[in-house]
Every structure is written in C-alpha cells, then in structure tokens.
Amino acid sequence: MEVGMRIVRGVDWKWGNQDDGEGHVGTVVEIGRQGSTTTPDKTVVVQWDCGTRTNYRTGYQGAYDLLLYDNAQIGVRHPNIICDCCKKHGIMGMRWKCQVCFDYDLCTQCYMINKHDLTHSFERYETAHSQALADEVLRLVEVLEGNDVYGTITQIMEMEGKKKHILFIYLYQ
C-alpha cells in the first residue's frame, strides 16, 4: 500500500458502515510505522469519500480490512497497452488481462463495470513491470430464475428470499 491508492472493503472488514457502505471508496493517506501508538506497522489511515478518516489493518494481527481498488492516483501507467473497451491508450492504474481472449486488456474502470464476459478469468497487473497477481476479489453470480445478477457478497446475501443458488467465479487462477 502507498499513500494515494484508492481502496475498498476487504476480506476481514468488521467496521460496520465507517466507509458509508459496501462498494464505497477511500484513499490511503498515511502508512503505519513501527513504534507509532496511533498508526502501528501493518496499518494504514484511510480518508473515505464520505468524510470518515480512521485506521485499518493491512496485515496487523493477521487481518486485511482493505482491498486495492485503483492505483492510478500514484502515477502508475501501462504506456503501451490500450483498453479494448474504452480504447484509452496507456492504461492508468491497474491493467486487467483476459486469460481467455487473445490480447484483450481492460482498464480498471471498464473492468469494474463488467465491460467483458464475466465468466472469463483475468490477471491483474499493478504496474507495467509487475507479474500477474492473484487476488481475493471474487465476482458473484446469483442465478434468479434465468436472470444473472451481479454484485458483491453483501449485496447478494441481502436479496433474501430470491436466492436459488450462488456460483462463485474466481477471477484468478
């Protein structure tokens, strides 16, 4: 994590609606350090878009409260890659490479709004020189009488009474 990165709730989130609810985004504004009583090592301070500012675990006590949403704000760019949906040259932030289609890449914005086949797996590249990363991110597909409904775990679980079954699609192998 670096100051300026955009984040969302992670796998160990237990802080209610401090972030203003599932799917809301915040910015890392401070990195924890050893010896600090207010922001210890393996924590970060986040300024949520809703105005709340507090610290979260990024490995502290073995827990991860946050997931990286976007890193374009810290100047990450893939200069020779074109998003195959919005056609922007030089993808800013993370690059999402389809593992099914030949030479098919998405920027974070197109990836997050489902601009490609959701049954395909993707690799995520955080920088132009990084290796593909696995992540905890899942897409959920809830099959409702023949209609696919996409959303987060929380959103789908809140659709009480409508669930038939849930298919977990892991985006990374």
Describe this structure in words.
- Pfam families: MIB_HERC2, ZZ.
- Pathway: Protein modification; protein ubiquitination.
- One of its GO terms (molecular function) is zinc ion binding.
- Residues 1-72 form the MIB/HERC2 domain.
- The structure is a single chain.
- The radius of gyration is 17 Å and the shape is elongated.
- By secondary structure, the chain is mostly beta strands.
- The protein starts with 5 loop residues before the first strand and ends with a strand.
- The protein has two helices and 13 strands, in the order βββββββββαβββαβ.
- The longest helix has 5 residues, at 108-112.
Structural class: mainly beta
Number of domains: 3
- The percent range for helix content is under 10%
Instruction: Tell me, briefly, the overall form.
Output: elongated
CATH class of the largest domain: Mainly Beta
Q: How many angstroms does the end-to-end distance come to?
A: 23 Å
Number of strands: 13
The fraction of residues in strands falls at 35-45%
Main location: cytoplasm
Domain ZZ-type: 78-130
Organism: Scyliorhinus torazame (Cloudy catshark)
GO molecular function: ubiquitin-protein transferase activity; zinc ion binding
